Structure formats: C-alpha cells, structure tokens
Request: fold
Amino acid sequence: MIENHAEKACRLFAEGRNCAQAVFTAFADVTGLDEELALRLSSSFGGGMGRMREVCGTCSAMFMVAGILYGYTSKNDIDEKAEHYRRIQYLAAQFRKKHETINCLELLKGLKVSSDPMPEQRTEQYYKVRPCIKFVRTAAEILDNYINENPVKAANK
Reply:
C-alpha cells in the first residue's frame, strides 16, 4: 500500500511551500521525481497559477501527478485521451464534493484577494485565516485514495 501523503503535504505547506508544491512534492516518491525538480515544476501553480486565483494549485498538482502516473502519450488515441480526461474530471469532482469548487478565488471567499504577485508572509496570523492547508490535505487524500484503488500500469512506472 502506498503511504498516506497528506501529512507530508501539510508539513510542506506549513514550512512555506505553495499549495501546488506541497501536494506535488509530497508524491515525489510515487512519481519518481527528485524533490527539487518537483518543487520547481509545481512552483508556477501556487495561488491558483501564479496568484491569479484560477484553478486551485492543489488540484493542478493532483492533475500533474495523475498525468505522470496514468497520462497518455498517443496523439491519435481518442479513447485513451477520453479515459484520462474522465480521470481528471473524477479527481476534480471528488475535490468539489468537499469544497464545492476547484477555483482558488472561490475557495478563498471572505479573504481579501489581490492580483499582486507578491506572496504574503507566512506568519502565525496567515495560517489562522488561510484555509489552504485543508485544501492541501483534501487533494493529497483524494490522490492517495485514487492511486490505492487504481494501480499504475507497469508501462507507466
């Protein structure tokens, strides 16, 4: 059985990693990526993609892990593409069941949101009002459950 990655993801977020980095890097042992590469690759997706408050970075991270583990490479296999897109839509639906949306701006309701690219300082007060850690946990738990229920094919390992 694959280890539970939620605690690692939450720890990475609490240490100052962005939401996407926390989830994506927590699964580096499963994807086979070096943690430094995982951090760099996922760094653009924090704050709903560069703090633009679009798709939640935790969801982007789930989708990237799913792509590494189950993604397709064929340019012509419509069924394979559709199967993968169904998988991504399923993961998004699981997240929506818990939080109603995968949109960062909607998830941060009640918080003052700005288009300023400058990240906020990670202070004790930041963590008191920022709901992101629960989204980090949810995404990691959904992904762990999915991987446990859907073993990766040998060709994708």
